[in-house]
Amino acid sequence: MDVLQKWNRSIPDGNETAAAVLFFLLFIFLKQFYLFPSGGMEAADVCLFASFFMLLCDCMRRRPERLLQLKTESLFYVFLASVLMINAYYGIRLGRGEFFKYTCFWIFNACAIWSFCYLTEYGGKAFLTGINRVVKVNIGVQLLIYLSGHGRIFREYWGAVRYQGTFNDPNQLAFFLFMMILLLYLYRCRFGDRSFPVFYVLVLPVIAASKSTGILLGVFVFTILAVLYELYQIGCKKGVSVKVWILGICMGVLIFGLFLWWIWPAADFDVKTVDYNMLTRIQEKIWKVAHGGLLGLFLDRGMEKLVLYPQYLLYGAGEGGFDRFTLASQVNEIHCCLFSVMFCYGLIPTSCLLVWLGRKLRRIDAAMTSAVIGLLAESFFLVNYRQPMFWMILLYGSVAGGWRQRDAAACGILQRHLLQGKPGAGGPLLGALHSGGRLLRI
Q1: How far is residue 218's CA from residue 197's CA, in Å, rounded to a whole number?
Q2: What is the mean pLDDT of each run of 10 residues along the chain (442 residues)?
Q3: How far is residue 207's CA from residue 213's CA, in Å, rounded to a whole number?
Q4: How far apart, in whole angstroms, are the C-alpha atoms of residue 426 and residue 32?
Q5: Euclidean distance between the first and final Cα of the chain, in Å?
Q6: Beta 161-165 vs 152-155: how paired, if at all?
């Protein structure tokens, strides 16, 4: 509640907007509870839409110029328009409603992106602190459910089990907790939070119980990069020599090589005949790559469609109706975010999305790069771009720094006006500083 009070103090007439903040925080908390089959409307989704429409009304009433500032987001809107047209074309042509369902997912994500950026821009640290606290509560809730033994269980067709908590799928649980880790880390990079290592450790046993190798890859890449960055920072402060750095890198490569040698599966490895845990799941993936090569990986991720139907990489196949691709061995979507978007919507819309995202990522801090690369590594093996938190992670560094830059610029302009003897010109600028989340004193 103190987050909402800070919001009200920092923004004039902020009661309505504070309600939108509350609904957005409720969305993040309730996102972990799946009461219906995946793909349907949940309580968390209702909260997000409520937050979006409240903010939209507030923006139209008090900041209509915000709606007209489309230049920086134009490429994303071009991509979104392409999604609407391509899915509408295939949905009408094939008479199948699932294309429109996937369009709704993109519209839902667009609402989440806009709401997150708007609230961060005008709420600043107070809003991000609220998210940080809710994230910690989410980790505690999932850990307590796991320890109490009341979580849901997913059974493989041969009888092995995977833990899925309050979700409908183990990968959903693992992805959600991975997002919680990254949100905590990004907040730590921007504002500092010494409790991050504690919550990081608390998450690991639950992710391990889900046995999601794709998420494990993301966690591994993120952890290695974050640790290396911290060591680099310490080394620079201590003045560590180049020889020590080279020795450390060689030791790290040697340890990783020994680990691979230790877990390398035998030629007759069969995951159905061994104890089913995260380690044997890793061995299963290694065995598939070792014996099937890249072709085996392509088949496992459904990426053979890229070779069998290359024409859709140019103009898009639409998102849905995956049983159309009869030459493929699996009737499912491509389990890779980048190739899935490119296959469904074609080269030009995907290029617009990537350029827009690239411009956003250029503004992140060096420390935040670890989280982004970890997420992108995971996204090459799972489809998670329909989840709003996927985009929140990618945009976090851009929007979290935007309000600081705007405040600093406004402060500089105000100082120049006052030095020139134009105190009357400071009123609007003070309002701008208020809207940034706090009043700067000069």
Answers
A1: 17
A2: 54 65 95 86 93 88 64 86 96 92 94 91 88 96 95 87 93 95 95 92 94 91 93 85 85 90 86 83 81 67 85 92 85 88 95 94 90 93 91 91 51 48 45 39 27
A3: 10
A4: 46
A5: 29
A6: antiparallel
- CA distances 247 to 128, 231, 261, Å, are 40, 14, 21
Alpha-carbon distance of 236 to 229, in angstroms, equals 11
Residue type (1 letter), 72: T
Please report, for residues 125, 239, 338, 392, the alpha-carbon distance to residue 116 in angstroms, rounded to integers and kept in the order given: 13, 40, 23, 7
Distance CA 407, CA 400 (A): 12
User: Are 237 and 304 in contact, with CB atoms under 8 Å apart?
Assistant: no
CA-to-CA distance for 102 and 279, rounded, in angstroms?
Answer: 35
Give the global pTM.
0.85
Helices (H), strands (E): how many in the chain? 18, 2
Q: Which of 303, 285, 34, 31 is nearest to 180 (CA)?
A: 31
